[in-house]
Amino acid sequence: MLDSVLNLLGPAVLDRVTLALNHVLASEPAATQRLKLHEGRSLRLSFEGWPALLPPPPPAAWTITPAGLLERVELPTDPVGVLELKVDATQPVQLAAQLLSGDRSAVALRGDAELASTLAWLMDNVRWDPEEDLARLFGDAAARPMANTLRSIGAGVQATLKALAPLAQRMGGGPR
Q1: 37 band by pLDDT with thresholds 50, 70 and 90
Q2: Are 85 and 107 spatial neighbours (Cβ–Cβ below 8 Å)?
Q3: Which residues pair with 132 in a beta bridge?
Q4: Could you give the count of Cα atoms lying within 13 Å of 47 in the half-sphere of its Cβ?
Protein backbone atom coordinates (compact mmCIF):
# COMPACT_ATOMS: atom_id res chain seq x y z
CA MET A 1 0.00 0.00 0.00
CA LEU A 2 2.84 2.38 0.84
CA ASP A 3 4.29 1.77 -2.62
CA SER A 4 1.03 2.76 -4.32
CA VAL A 5 0.82 5.96 -2.25
CA LEU A 6 4.44 6.79 -3.10
CA ASN A 7 3.79 6.08 -6.79
CA LEU A 8 0.94 8.61 -6.68
CA LEU A 9 2.83 11.23 -4.68
CA GLY A 10 6.18 10.93 -6.47
CA PRO A 11 5.18 12.66 -9.72
CA ALA A 12 3.32 15.41 -7.84
CA VAL A 13 6.34 16.09 -5.64
CA LEU A 14 8.66 16.12 -8.65
CA ASP A 15 6.34 18.56 -10.42
CA ARG A 16 6.55 20.90 -7.41
CA VAL A 17 10.34 20.53 -7.30
CA THR A 18 10.44 21.40 -11.01
CA LEU A 19 8.33 24.52 -10.40
CA ALA A 20 10.65 25.58 -7.58
CA LEU A 21 13.78 25.00 -9.67
CA ASN A 22 12.30 26.95 -12.58
CA HIS A 23 11.32 29.80 -10.26
CA VAL A 24 14.92 30.10 -9.08
CA LEU A 25 16.34 29.75 -12.60
CA ALA A 26 13.93 32.33 -14.04
CA SER A 27 14.98 34.88 -11.43
CA GLU A 28 18.53 34.79 -12.80
CA PRO A 29 18.70 35.69 -16.53
CA ALA A 30 22.31 34.46 -16.81
CA ALA A 31 21.14 31.01 -15.69
CA THR A 32 18.45 30.66 -18.34
CA GLN A 33 20.82 32.05 -21.01
CA ARG A 34 23.38 29.37 -20.16
CA LEU A 35 20.76 26.62 -20.14
CA LYS A 36 19.30 27.72 -23.50
CA LEU A 37 22.56 26.57 -25.07
CA HIS A 38 21.69 23.02 -23.95
CA GLU A 39 18.10 22.95 -25.24
CA GLY A 40 16.84 19.39 -25.65
CA ARG A 41 19.52 17.83 -23.46
CA SER A 42 18.47 15.97 -20.32
CA LEU A 43 19.39 15.61 -16.66
CA ARG A 44 18.79 12.34 -14.83
CA LEU A 45 18.97 12.15 -11.03
CA SER A 46 19.54 8.89 -9.19
CA PHE A 47 20.32 7.99 -5.58
CA GLU A 48 22.82 5.19 -4.94
CA GLY A 49 22.91 3.24 -1.71
CA TRP A 50 19.50 4.46 -0.55
CA PRO A 51 18.73 2.94 2.90
CA ALA A 52 16.32 0.02 2.66
CA LEU A 53 14.26 1.28 5.61
CA LEU A 54 13.31 4.49 3.81
CA PRO A 55 10.91 4.63 0.86
CA PRO A 56 12.95 5.17 -2.31
CA PRO A 57 12.72 8.51 -4.07
CA PRO A 58 10.97 8.47 -7.44
CA PRO A 59 13.07 8.41 -10.61
CA ALA A 60 13.68 11.98 -11.75
CA ALA A 61 14.63 13.42 -15.13
CA TRP A 62 14.31 16.80 -16.80
CA THR A 63 14.82 18.14 -20.31
CA ILE A 64 16.03 21.67 -20.94
CA THR A 65 13.42 23.76 -22.75
CA PRO A 66 14.01 26.46 -25.40
CA ALA A 67 13.40 29.05 -22.63
CA GLY A 68 16.33 27.69 -20.59
CA LEU A 69 14.07 26.11 -17.98
CA LEU A 70 13.43 22.51 -16.95
CA GLU A 71 10.60 20.21 -17.98
CA ARG A 72 10.07 16.99 -16.04
CA VAL A 73 10.12 13.97 -18.34
CA GLU A 74 10.22 10.19 -18.14
CA LEU A 75 13.70 8.76 -17.74
CA PRO A 76 15.62 9.14 -21.01
CA THR A 77 17.01 5.87 -22.31
CA ASP A 78 19.35 7.37 -24.92
CA PRO A 79 22.61 8.40 -23.19
CA VAL A 80 23.42 11.03 -25.84
CA GLY A 81 22.93 14.53 -24.46
CA VAL A 82 22.14 13.21 -20.97
CA LEU A 83 23.90 14.28 -17.81
CA GLU A 84 23.49 11.81 -14.99
CA LEU A 85 23.66 13.09 -11.42
CA LYS A 86 24.38 10.18 -9.10
CA VAL A 87 23.96 11.01 -5.43
CA ASP A 88 25.59 8.89 -2.74
CA ALA A 89 22.65 8.41 -0.38
CA THR A 90 24.16 5.85 1.97
CA GLN A 91 24.05 8.46 4.76
CA PRO A 92 20.87 10.52 4.20
CA VAL A 93 21.34 12.76 7.23
CA GLN A 94 24.94 13.53 6.32
CA LEU A 95 23.88 14.03 2.68
CA ALA A 96 21.24 16.59 3.70
CA ALA A 97 23.79 18.46 5.84
CA GLN A 98 26.31 18.48 2.98
CA LEU A 99 23.81 19.73 0.43
CA LEU A 100 22.51 22.45 2.77
CA SER A 101 26.07 23.69 3.28
CA GLY A 102 26.74 23.76 -0.46
CA ASP A 103 29.06 20.74 -0.42
CA ARG A 104 28.56 18.79 -3.64
CA SER A 105 31.06 16.00 -2.89
CA ALA A 106 28.25 13.41 -2.65
CA VAL A 107 27.13 14.16 -6.21
CA ALA A 108 28.92 12.52 -9.15
CA LEU A 109 28.28 13.77 -12.68
CA ARG A 110 28.52 11.46 -15.70
CA GLY A 111 27.76 12.15 -19.31
CA ASP A 112 27.52 15.42 -21.23
CA ALA A 113 30.63 17.39 -20.18
CA GLU A 114 29.41 20.77 -21.47
CA LEU A 115 26.14 20.43 -19.58
CA ALA A 116 28.07 19.32 -16.47
CA SER A 117 30.12 22.50 -16.65
CA THR A 118 26.98 24.63 -16.94
CA LEU A 119 25.33 22.76 -14.08
CA ALA A 120 28.41 23.31 -11.89
CA TRP A 121 28.25 27.03 -12.67
CA LEU A 122 24.55 27.10 -11.78
CA MET A 123 25.17 25.35 -8.45
CA ASP A 124 27.97 27.80 -7.63
CA ASN A 125 26.22 30.99 -8.69
CA VAL A 126 22.43 30.70 -8.56
CA ARG A 127 20.67 31.01 -5.22
CA TRP A 128 17.08 31.44 -4.19
CA ASP A 129 16.43 34.84 -2.61
CA PRO A 130 13.58 34.26 -0.16
CA GLU A 131 13.59 37.93 0.86
CA GLU A 132 12.75 39.00 -2.69
CA ASP A 133 9.81 36.58 -2.88
CA LEU A 134 8.59 37.57 0.57
CA ALA A 135 8.79 41.26 -0.38
CA ARG A 136 6.49 40.62 -3.35
CA LEU A 137 3.95 39.01 -1.03
CA PHE A 138 4.22 41.09 2.15
CA GLY A 139 6.18 44.23 1.28
CA ASP A 140 9.78 45.19 1.96
CA ALA A 141 9.30 46.08 5.63
CA ALA A 142 7.96 42.63 6.57
CA ALA A 143 10.22 40.67 4.22
CA ARG A 144 13.53 41.39 5.98
CA PRO A 145 12.62 39.99 9.44
CA MET A 146 10.82 37.05 7.83
CA ALA A 147 13.86 36.23 5.69
CA ASN A 148 16.15 36.56 8.71
CA THR A 149 13.92 34.08 10.56
CA LEU A 150 14.08 31.66 7.63
CA ARG A 151 17.89 31.95 7.53
CA SER A 152 18.07 31.25 11.27
CA ILE A 153 15.82 28.21 10.90
CA GLY A 154 17.94 26.97 7.98
CA ALA A 155 21.13 27.39 9.97
CA GLY A 156 19.57 25.51 12.87
CA VAL A 157 18.46 22.65 10.62
CA GLN A 158 21.93 22.50 9.07
CA ALA A 159 23.62 22.41 12.49
CA THR A 160 21.21 19.73 13.69
CA LEU A 161 21.84 17.56 10.64
CA LYS A 162 25.62 17.91 11.03
CA ALA A 163 25.33 16.91 14.69
CA LEU A 164 23.07 13.94 13.89
CA ALA A 165 25.15 12.57 11.01
CA PRO A 166 27.67 10.67 13.20
CA LEU A 167 24.84 9.29 15.34
CA ALA A 168 22.90 8.12 12.29
CA GLN A 169 26.03 6.42 10.97
CA ARG A 170 26.62 4.59 14.26
CA MET A 171 22.98 3.48 14.38
CA GLY A 172 23.23 1.73 11.04
CA GLY A 173 22.36 4.44 8.57
CA GLY A 174 25.07 3.07 6.30
CA PRO A 175 24.78 1.15 3.06
CA ARG A 176 22.33 -1.72 2.68
Answers
A1: very high
A2: yes
A3: none
A4: 19
Helix, strand, or coil (residue 82) = strand
Residue 176: pLDDT over 50: no
Helix and strand element counts for the chain (H, E): 6, 5
Sign of the dihedral through C-alpha 148, 151, 157, 159: negative
Edge-to-edge strands of the sheet including 60-64? 70-72, 60-64, 42-48, 82-88, 107-111
Cβ neighbours around 9 below 10 Å, total: 12
Q: For 80-119, how does the pLDDT look when each residue is reduced to its tens digit (9 = 90+)?
A: 778 999 988 887 777 777 776 777 777 888 888 999 999 9
89/85 Cα distance (integer angstroms): 12
C-alpha to C-alpha distance for 135 and 132, rounded to whole angstroms: 5
**Are the beta carbons of 83 and 119 closer than 8 angstroms?**
yes
- Amino acid at position 147, single letter: A
